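@channel anyone free to eyeball this complex?
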Amino acid sequence: MTADKKQEAERSSRIDETFEPYELHGKMPWPLIAFAVGLGLWGVATLFETREDVVGAQAERVARSHTETGVATEPGAPLFLARCSTCHQPDGLGVRGAIPPLAGSAFVAHGPELVATILLRGIDGPIRVGDHVFNGHMPSFSSVLADVEIGELATYVARRFGTSSDSLNAPDVAMLRDRVAGSGSFKGGAEIASSTDLDLGHQPAFVPATAVSLTPEVSALVFTGRGEQWACASCHGDLGQGKENTPRLAGLSADYIVKQLGDFAAGRRLNESMRLIVASLSDEEKRQLGDYYAALRVPSNARPDLGGSLARGEALALHGDWSRNVPACFSCHGPSGFGVAPEFPPIAAQHAAYTASQLAAWAGGRRNNSPLDLMGRISRELSDADRRAVADYLASLPPVPAGDDTQIAEIGEHP
Amino acid sequence: MTEPAESLAAKPADPQRGRIARWWIHAAGAGIIAAALGALAYESGIIPGRQTSQQVAGPATAGFFQPPADDQIPDDEFGAAIRRGQAIFMNTSTNASQYVGNGLSCSNCHLGAGRQPFSAPMWAAWGQYPRYRSKNNQINTMEDRVQGCFTFSMNAQHSVAGGPPPHGDDIYRDLQSYFYWLASGAPNNELMSGAGFGRVARTELGYSPERGAQVFAANCAVCHGAEGQGQMDINDRYVFPPLWGPNSYNWGAGMARIDTAAAFIKHNMPLSQPGRLTDQEAWDVAAYINSFERPKDARQQGRTIEETRRLYHDGDEIYYGQVVNGVLLGVGTPDPVRPVGAVD
Amino acid sequence: MNRYLPLSIIALGILAFATLLLVIAPGIQIGRHDAPPGLEPYTEQQLRGRQVYVSLGCVYCHSQQPRSPDQAPDGARGWGRPAIAADYTYDAPHQLGTMRTGPDLLNVGARLPSRDWHLAHLYQPRAIFDWSIMPAYPFLFEVKGAPDPGDVVVSMPSGFGPEAGVIVAKQDALDLTAYLLSLDRTYPAPADAIRDDGYRRPEGTP
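replying in thread with the prediction:
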């Protein structure tokens, strides 16, 4: 006990040992405070700036979605320039021997309702306008234009190139849309004349093309798969419409499809899934698959969804960027992206994700099958934003030739 | 601060030492604040230099005259004429339908809507007229020159009208409005860089259609077709122009001369890859393309081919009036059953 | 250690402030948005598949959040448009993930819509991509002499299947595949959707 007491006394006599450290109320150096305040200011300013960007981007999107869905009431003129003029020309005179003129056309003279019906259904057969007979392949805009837009466009066309002063509103177009749903494209001027009982002059007769018949083996390839392979349709859809970066095959030329299948096998196009698929295809099967998909007529289910600038995309598609030796897409793929067989596939209505990923693949060397490396060189000149812009623009175009869009609705239900 | 280091080490309690440390802390703090404020100012765009994304003309058109862009066309009567002229330029067979006897448009040779350097850009041509041309031994106005284009390059002899637009036609008025506008700010009467098709140096080997056939198959056939007849889309609209045969330019056109065609090809073809072909390949393939029959020279009238050759093609690099592959060239493709573009 | 009280108050205050800004405010913001019209709730089977996805730890290698083009070239990779908050309406908890050892999966159902492809790929990823580093999941399948009625037979490229018999997918594999195929956020993002627009300048401004 005494020893303990002694120790205790000793300890208390040594102040240092019981010392509990604490911090004096020292002044914070002013640079530290200033630094904190500076950082805080910076943070607040950045927050505000970002907020501005967010609000600006949102307003831009809302405005764009209004034009796309037709909430904003725009006259048909910009629509005409954007949607019709690559074929019918800004002055509506068409192209000699290829694209019928709108000015003075008997079809346009019958007013906006017939114009809207043609816009909704499209044409896929010979048509006589004035004294000339044209091939008559016009896409259906049903899957890419809203009722309001069709109404405005038809009103504008009928007023500018015809004599009609009638106007067509969205509800009228909705009724028209219901009426023509599922009837497919007009089989040339003859069907327009017979189905509307209007006086359209003498129209050339429609000669149906021979239907492509699938052998049971190839049909199995497409729909159920075979042995080691899964079915084409399991990715590309029952109608070859594709989705996202699975390309739309419907309407591609048979030669082009056959060449791509060969390129997958040879490694000029790198895609592991397709390489496996083509490994066991015979040349005859490739040819039959090409013929089958080339003959399919499906409305577009592509949408511009990469956030690219549609204006820039349109400029690239129509005029190119000569300062970088990038020619217009349409200068090779045809004036509306309908393709030029066999080397230049249709690019209209192709899925934006697919187009952008292929441009990236060319630039990055995963795709090397373009003749003369045309696409490789062009893709390397395009920035990422340019690739998205042009892919989005092409996805907003109607497919060619026309189709009917009940099929696509059914596909939407399909798992 | 000026004291030697050893004295600091020797006297650790030196008050000077703490002051230096504080000085450093203050300096670092002030520096960081300055950097933060500077970054803030830079981010918010107060400091210029942030605008780095402005378009810099790339290699293809850099260093050449820059014509105005389409969105700069004025919104008045003059602008309307410019637009009509541009429409004729781009889509000649429709907007000047009765004077075009083949499948070509102005824009097939004058690329980029008449803007592309070394593709006979119109901004460079505008200030060069009126001028003397040995082709017809007289002073040519721009209207005369364009009339020549219709006569030869558009093969107007097979058109509905049977000849080029008559002098004074609105077609010339509109086209010249377009050219004049493209040349806004361009010097007058001065040979501009990028004018015409340029030149290709002669090669030691000369030119040969046989070698050109291989160049053609490897580089041109994918677009212009193995037979050189161009390609159409599903509506029978030419996407790639025909290079020879009845739907191409006739023997009187500048492009029928091998040196002219070689220069055009060297500087512009394949589209998007100018300069891909060597000089030798450009000469050879130009010779190949121009070694096929095409519509007859519009000036031949009642003359024989030999007379026409002596009169109009003497000294030219052209196969007109020569026998190539056992065929006398210059006879012309057969006249069409009815004029091109006439009612069916 | 003294002044416990002020320290505790400050600590709690910071915590409350962070909770307000990081949890409550975003919760209110997100709560204002409904499910996008194109987004379907998961079915029973897809939810079972989601459990398989969680239990196999897919999230450790696969994200489910395509980024905006300013941040990553996900669009060019084909992974789909930038995700919006409402894309995850039916995901509780979400499977955002942080690692991208494998590709982003938020739109895998749109990108690779074939059930048979997924089954083959799950059984042996290297049958399709010889460079793939994804683990194989053979335990989701069984090998049978002959398929029973209703069995889903997996077609494997030659050299990767069993020497005898057929590969049949177990229920877990079918559920997981159903879940993967349901991952499809390709419907258009509503214009007012919450998404990351940071540092994106409206077009035309420098």
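from a first look: The longest strand of chain B covers residues 131-133.
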